Every structure is written in structure tokens, then in C-alpha cells.
Amino acid sequence: MIASPLTAARLAAIAVTLAASLVVTPAARAQTTEQLTQATKTPADVLINGFAYDAQRYSRLAQVNRGNVKRLVPVWNLSLNNNLGEESQALAWNGSIYITNHRATYAIDARTGRMRWKNELEFDAEVPRVVCCGQVNRGAAIFEGRLYRGTLDAHVQAIDIQTGRELWKTKVIEWRDGYSITSAPMVANGVLISGMSGGEYGTRGFLVGFDPATGRELWRTYTIPGPGEPGNETWPGDLWKHGGGATWGAGAYDPQMDLVYWGTGNAGPWNGGVRKGDNKHAASTIAIRPRTGELVWAYQNTPGDPFDFDSISQPVLGDLVIEGKPRKTLMHADKNGYFYVLDRATGKPIVANPFVKVTWATGLDQNFRPIWSESTRKLIDTGAEVESWPSISGGKNWNPMAYNPETRLIYANTQEGGMLIRHTPVDYKQQGSRYIGVAVKRLWPEDGNRGALRAIDPLTGKTRWKVPYAVPSFAATMTTAGKLVFSGDMMGEFSAYDAEQGKKLWSFQTGSGIIGQPISWELDGVQYITVTSGLGGVYVLNGADERLSTVPPGGSLWTFALFRK
Known about the structure:
Helices cover 7% and strands 35% of the residues. It is mainly beta. It has a single domain (27-562), classed as 8 Propeller (Methanol Dehydrogenase, Chain A). A hairpin with a 4-residue loop joins strand 26 and strand 27. The longest helix is centred in the first third of the chain and has 15 residues, at 8-22. The protein is globular, with a radius of gyration of 24 Å. 51% of the residues are buried.
């Protein structure tokens, strides 16, 4: 059989079709694996939660600096139509800002502040019943023209970044069993990775990996080991089934080592007297392979966790000089009050020191295992009320910290409280029901300051400078090449500080409390600073702080730049 000859018209049509199939839109070209890996070299864009895979929250932009920051003025503000707390970090790319909250995802024109599109979520009215600490969302991931986020009803959603149209939505697990997703996902080595929330509801924590194009689940790695897995022997009986270890923070990634780092939450129930033992891998820092979910190492910050000491604050990666030699390290300020520097290849601790008042442990032994104080032993053995510092809010909570490689300091908003804690009866009823078993009364320092912005030496845990807060801040910090530190407080003030001395250089009242995560980005040669404002979150719900009665709710996104005549 002889094929019929192709006409010129037919050849031209085929050529057009082939060309169209090879066209890659700007959206598809953007946010490639290479671009994400090189994010530290392109500070004009913010494509990753934490600014780059190392999660240092360090912007290399320096147009705004210590000498001119007092000229910062607002250039636009957008209402997010939300009264329940704004904890998200924005992303910035190609003239658009992308922001999330528990109800919606927004794309905003970066030049004007006008909304380009909004993707609203719908979920069952009963969902908030299994969200312990505020209806919030902490951010999105962006990759190959798609924006990814988690939802309160335990789904992961993919959205077209140009149109706002939903591309796929995958159910991760049943929300009625106590699960939700509040954390920002990440894309590492071509895999979309998400954590989950629900450590107070008898859940078993995990990380899950997806195909970013389709939403198909690729792997699921549980933080609490089951029968036959190493560490299961540290859980009495079948308590591992509801052992907590939620992954409700954000992760970091080392592309050279191909390791993703994540923190795990409190052991369940909080009552440590019913589950004596180390209870691995709750209250830990873990490292996994992004393509397979394989657990490579785990370091437990608080074995046996009797105090709700989640270790979920986003790890920060940095190369530190230790004993005259550079080391690839992971830095972590734990709720238990200790600041850890780990070898990020092995998970072995290098140094660990307290950065706030600590009484639950008298120190760490030669293996970096905490030595329980007499009061902690009394609590575990008898359940009787004891005084312990820090409180269940921790020395530092979920809110991410920043690291400036020029000053070699960590900048973190810390908590300054303690507690009276005792055991109460606890039985597992069903997933979706509270599974705690302690009673807590909060204690505060005599000076009346419940928090502080601290500049911390990561190798000693010592505070170089401190700015006290009467009301503690649950906002993230950001630092820049302009030798600045930016953060906000619950009274609504967004401020810039000298990164070396801690002097406040500028501030602006945003109108509601700040519990979000600031970013810096550049467009048309101008450096901008963006932050969410909107009071909410765990301290507002549980802190019983009457001073916040004068702070109105209401979510909005603020963007600032230098005033130009």
C-alpha cells in the first residue's frame, strides 16, 4: 500500500499543530525544579514558603536598609474578608502576589493591589469542630503553573495560577476523624509534600507525597511507627495508633543531600503518665527522601513528651563554622525551650542550649537526651500538679524564625510563660474527640512581658539583643541584606529593627493583630515588603488576654515601599 502524498496545506497544518504542542506558556515555564533550587539567587521572586529551600527567610534585597527604612510607606492594602486570623506567607511571581487563608486563595496584581482572581473553598459546617487552634492556613506552594494548598477538611488542592480554576483536589484523609491541613505544602525533587494537623484528636501523624500534575498519592510516611517498624516498641500496647506526631508546620529541603526536613508534633495524649517510654517519633525532627518518603533519620527533641512540646517549627538550614570547620547544619528552636543545631546529613546533635527559662529539664546528658527535673518526674509518676517552664505554648511556637548569614544570628519571636500542670483521667473514645488528659493554668513573668523578639546566637543559645512584648507575638520574622529584621505583633504594629543592635527603626499600625509571615520582593526595580494582618490563632483563643479586646479582627494584606518624591 502506498501512502497518499501530503499536500502543502496539510504539511503546514501539521507544522502548526506540532508547534502548538511544543509551546510552553509563561506559567508552565515558571517555578521549575531548577528555579526552586536556585531561589536564593532570585530574590525578586518568592516561590517557596521560607523564601528558599533553606527556609532562612533571608532576603538578599537591600534597597530598603537601616539608613532609609524610616521612609517606608504603604502602597496598597487589600481586604481578605476574613475575621478568623491570617497566618499565611504570600508568594510573589511575575507581577502577582498569591495568598491563602482558611476560606480562599487569592491572586493579586502586585502593582495595584487589585484582586485578579479568588478561589473560594466550601466545606462542611462541622469541620471547625476538629480544628483545635484556630481556623487558619499558613500558605501555598507553587510549581509549573500550579498553586497548591491544604484545606481544613483534609484535602490538597491544585489551582491554575493564571485563571484561579481548580485543576484537581485530592482527599488526604477523613476530617471527621480529627484530621485537617493548615500547613504550607512544598515541592521537592518533583514531588508535592504535605503535612497534616490533628494531634489533639487521637490521630496518627504522617507526611504524604503527591504527583503535582495529577494529585495521585505516591507515598505516605507515618511519624508514629507501627508494629514491625523501628521505634514501635517505645509505645505501650496499641497507643501508637493514636499517638499524635502531627506534621502541622512547614518543611525545608537540601537538594544536594536530597533530604526533606520536617518537625513532628506532641505525643498523644498529652498525659505522659499513660504512655511511659520515649514514644518515637513524636516531638521530633525527621528527614525523608522526597521521591519515596523513606525515613532517613529522626532526632527526638523531647522523649516521652509530657508537655505538648511540638517540634513543628520550620527547620532552618545553614552552613555554620564549628570548631574552625564549616558544617552543614539544621537549626531548630523547640517548644521545649532548647535551641538545637543538628548535622543535617545524620541528625546527630552538635549543640543544644536553652534560649528561654527552662525548668522541666535540668540539662541534657552527653547523648543530648534531656535530664528530667524533679517536678517532671513527679508529674509523670503521680500526676500531681507541678510548676513547669516553658508552658504548653512553648519557648517558641509554630511561627517561623529567620537567619541572617551576615550577622550569623537567628531572629525569633519567643514566648515567656510557664504553667501549673496536672494529669486528669483520659481514655481514647473515638477519632475526632479530644484526647488530652491534662489541666493547665498559665503562669507569666513578674515583669508582665509575655514574649520577646530575640536575636539568638545559634551555637550558644544566648540572646544578643531582645525586644520585650507585653502581649506575645505569634508572627514570623524576616531579615534582609539591608541589615533589617521585620516582624509584627498582636496589637497590630508592623516594625523594622536594626539586625545588629535591635533598635526599632520604623513601625506602622495595620489595624488588626499580626500573626502572619512577612516577605520582601522586587518589581520594576522597586523593593516591596508585604505582610498579612488579621487577629486570630491559638493565643487569641486560649490566652485570655483582655488587652486584645481593643484589637479588632479583619484580615488584610499590606504592601510597603520607600516613599519617592
